[in-house]
Write a structure and sequence with these properties.
By secondary structure, the protein is α+β, with helices and mostly antiparallel strands. The chain contains twelve helices and eight strands.
């Protein structure tokens, strides 16, 4: 059975040269130096193949090879300088040993040219590569004892040309791999940012739902509890009625909280809520709850509204709920509210007004702006590309006016349905 090499060992083995570049270049220079000396004493054209020890190893060959290979240690930091140095040493070797068998000092220049090509842009590679090929090949042809078309001259031309091409190919592949890695990292960051954005949107949506449910029902519970406490001794029957309203409001709050929190469950949870979201179809029940809590409400709405988009229906209901809750919390004693709903072919308009009541300190009644009700209302409306206008009325009191665009055709004409004051359905 063949041995299985772990991925970590394999990765470390082939990337050692990246983490220790200087040590790798020193080892490479030593190998090139040994290969140069072997090539200097070998006869590649022996009768029975290459033979070693036939040629004499001169001191000048050792010095030139040592200088050229030593320069290769700095090839990553100073690629062009190393190429110039190794090229100059190669030309010196070609001139000095014009009549003797030449040592392959040119191989150090070939390696330096490869380094330059792999670490610069393509135009620079071709300019530097062409200059190196011309200079080394011309020096070999001019100062050699063989004809210009000799194998040694063509070898220098071929090796330098292949070094430039190979270096350019390595640079292109490295750039391609880096681009792919960058795109993958960018895509990963984009996915993470999109996930965080969706989580934030979902949290805000659930927070708005919880705020609407809690603010509405807790306000009713607070009012009815206060009434029960006030009339407990003198009018026990009315206190019992108020406590019944407290029990009903708290039960409704628990049911809506359970439905809202149920949105956080897994999709395959069999206990996930299946009740439909509230809408204008149950608006009369909402208004009736405020009327029983002591807030007279004049509801002006179609008796049988046509089907609305689910998002528009829910948002309109929540706007009325939040606006009436603010009226109950911030308006003075004896305040009255008016809810008017108008539907056209293009939009649904919801208006909630109050007359301000009679504040104890004589100041105008309006929301104090310290909560998140109006903020959540605006976020809901803006999410549907609607418009919202809030502010005090000239006649006193406060007004909330919301316009929600419809995606489907509505009625043929604009109709405002009005009822007598105090009517809740």
């Amino acid at each position: 059975m063949p041995d299985v090499v772990p991925d970590t060992v394999r990765t470390g083995r082939f990337r050692w040269h990246r983490s220790h570049p200087l040590a790798f270049d020193a080892a490479l220079a030593a190998m090139v130096f040994a290969a140069t000396l072997c090539g200097a004493v070998a006869d590649p054209h022996g009768p029975h193949g290459p033979r070693f020890g036939v040629r004499e190893l001169s001191a000048i060959t050792v010095v030139l090879a040592a200088l050229a290979c030593t320069a290769l240690i700095a090839r990553r930091r100073f690629p062009r300088t190393v190429l110039a140095a190794t090229g100059a040493l190669t030309v010196v070797e070609l001139i000095v040993r014009s009549s003797d068998p030449r040592a392959p000092v040119a191989f150090s220049a070939v390696l330096a040219l490869f380094t330059v090509a792999s670490r610069t842009d393509r135009p620079t590679t071709w300019r530097v590569g062409a200059l190196t090929v011309v200079v080394l090949t011309a020096a070999s042809m001019l100062f050699g004892e063989h004809p210009w078309y000799a194998q040694q001259n063509l070898a220098i031309f071929a090796w330098t040309g292949m070094a430039a091409a190979a270096g350019d190919a390595v640079r292109s592949r490295r750039a391609y791999v880096d681009a792919i890695r960058e795109r993958a990292e960018r895509a990963e960051r984009t996915r993470e940012e999109e996930a965080r954005r969706r989580v934030a949107e979902e949290r805000m949506r659930i927070a708005r739902e919880l705020h609407d449910v809690v603010a509405h029902h807790i306000a009713l519970v607070n009012v009815q509890a206060g009434v029960a406490s006030h009339v407990m001794d003198n009018r026990p029957d009315q206190a019992k009625q108020a406590l019944a309203h407290v029990r009903e409001a708290s039960r409704s709050a628990l049911e809506e909280l359970r439905a809202t929190v149920g949105l956080l469950r897994q999709s395959d949870d069999p206990k996930a809520p299946t009740e439909p979201a509230p809408g204008l179809g149950v608006l009369d029940q909402l208004v009736d709850g405020f009327v029983r809590a002591g807030l007279p409400v004049d509801l002006q709405a179609p008796p049988a509204p046509q089907a609305l988009p689910a998002s528009v229906d829910l948002t309109a209901y929540r706007v009325v709920q939040e606006a009436l809750t603010n009226v109950r919390k911030h308006a003075g004693d004896g305040a009255r509210a008016t809810v008017r709903i108008i539907r056209t072919e293009a939009a649904l308009t919801v208006t909630v007004q109050d007359d301000g009541g009679r504040p104890d300190d004589g100041s105008p009644a309006a929301p104090d702006g310290g909560g998140h009700g109006l903020i959540g209302m605006r976020e809901r409306v803006f999410a549907l590309r609607g418009t919202i206008v809030t502010g005090p009325r000239a006649q006193g009191g406060f007004q909330v006016r919301v316009t929600l665009p419809l995606t489907a055709a509505g009625t043929d004409a604009t109709t405002a349905y009005e009822t007598t004051p105090g009517e809740t359905s």
